[in-house]
Amino acid sequence: MFHVKLDFENIVIGGGHAGVEAALASARMGISTLLITMEKSAIARMSCNPAIGGLAKGHLVAEIDALGGEMAKVTDKTGIQFRMLNRSKGRAVWSPRAQADKLQYSLEMISLVVAQKNLEILEDTAIGIITEHNQIVAVQTKKCGFITCKTAIITAGTFLNGLIHIGVKQKRGGRLGEKSALGITESLNAVGIKSGRLKTGTPPRIHRDSINFDQLTPQYGDKNPKPFSFQTKNFNPINIPCYITYTNPGTHAILFSGLDRSPLYTGRIKGVGPRYCPSIEDKIVRFRERTSHQIFLEPEWEDSYQYYVNGFSTSLPVDIQEKGLHSIRGLENAEIIKPGYAIEYDFFPSYQLKRTLETKVIGGLYLAGQVNGTSGYEEAAALGLVAGINAALKNRDEQPFFLTRSEAYIGVLIDDLITKSPTEPYRMFTSSAEYRLLLRFDNADQRLSHYGHRFGLIQHNQFLLSQCRKHLIEKSIRYLHQTSLSPSVINPRLADKLENPVKSGISLFKLLCRPNIHLADLYPLLPESFLRTFSKLDGLAEQVELDVKYHGYIQRQINLIKTQSRQEQIRLPDNIEYLKINSITKEAREKLNLMRPETIAQAGRIPGVSPADITALLILLKKQGVSRETE
What we know:
- There is one protein chain.
- By secondary structure, the protein is of the alpha+beta class.
- It is built from 21 helices and 23 strands.
- A six-stranded antiparallel beta sheet has the order 15-16-17-18-14-19, with no helix packed on it.
- Helix 11 (444-454) packs antiparallel against helix 12.
- The radius of gyration is 26 Å and the shape is globular.
- The mean pLDDT is 93.
């Protein structure tokens, strides 16, 4: 039996993507930390697709990196294909995505956890929490019994009362072949934390040798890809292709024939699934007019014999899965290694959390990852990192940490969770971020690394590198503002670019604002000392050009943030009796009483709370003498 000391400052329950980031952050901040996982070899396992990043998710990974997390660096080290998505659209929504070697990814994370000072691993199952005076004091495990702590973070993923569905068959499990976790939900319910049920699914995995690749369209990554981490050097990854094919009317007919045995359509599954990542049977029912859906075959590791059938998530019976796959071009002889399945699991609606991810009911207890109602490795890792930082700060009796919507996608993620409290698995989108021009993935280090440095999660030399980049960008933009050219110098170049000529001198900044003019076009007109600036850091010139071209839009967003910041700073008392405020609507009273927002701005983002309700609240607060943030 594995022996541990029976008291820790912080305990992390669950070794998935949220748990790893939470445990590493806590330990690196000097807090004695215990990571409880059912299976050490399953730490940071990619239980769904073997990929990191994607639309908006890539932004989250860059922000995790800037705060001192590990997901970006490990992805750079273990990725087998890297692509930038949304290149045909504005730069604010470009997002990096990588295929990862899922075996090496997990091994890299395990090695980091094992080597980390102040961090111990316990292979055990947590079955309950112990509280005194509404504070966490211990975690109960199946083998070791009670382990005392000042804080605890629950990052149990899909394991809490997990139930796997394949056709009419049901089996308890957190993932296929792994046991579910019993007791935690009931323990939290007993102290007043409400729970619900969600559902997610995964596609079948098929054998490489059974795929006819000649019938498929290969898709490679970028030739000169960008790394996820601003700390990665000498980046030259391999480029292993994925493959594209499509379902057809014959496929859909086969899938329809199995709906009478589908747990989704026979009522066996009670939990709500992700709207934006539906199962293939859900797609053919909801989008009957579509004659085909894209299928994306992803290798799960370098030289993998196992391919992930992205786009074919399903809980249909295995015989229907097999027939459906065999009707798809290139998959006529596909051999299923692991069938697709759906899993139902417990989660805890996030209106019960503070911005720090600490529960409002139990002090020192944090929730992070899929137990918050999210989906995706990236959302989980971001939440785990924030919870880990805050658990450490609480142990050090320091002020809590949270990010606003104008600072980071992570701030948008947490704010959406606690104000909207989704009843289906939440997925991050660029459209969710109203300040996305300011929150590009390429400036995450400049936005957030000062936090990571303050917490001791970003090394000083890396922080200085980030600040150097920020300083050089600002210096370059000042130079472009201050340097003007005469019409005789610039008009011939404008003519070459089909741009209107100028009648008087014009600054380089205004020139660069023109759509057909790029910074490289101005290089012949720039002094050698200025050009040397761009050679100091990779991608610096690109960022300067972006900041100039989006300057007007960015400035408008900055001004909007300033006008809205006052409401972000006005605290709502914890003991306010919303149900007795007759000057606001009944719906607003009920929503505010349920969600207990921390600030006026949060209250205004709760569905069902109108501007008139906010005005009434502000009048009430003024009468009570409450005006500003008191944290």
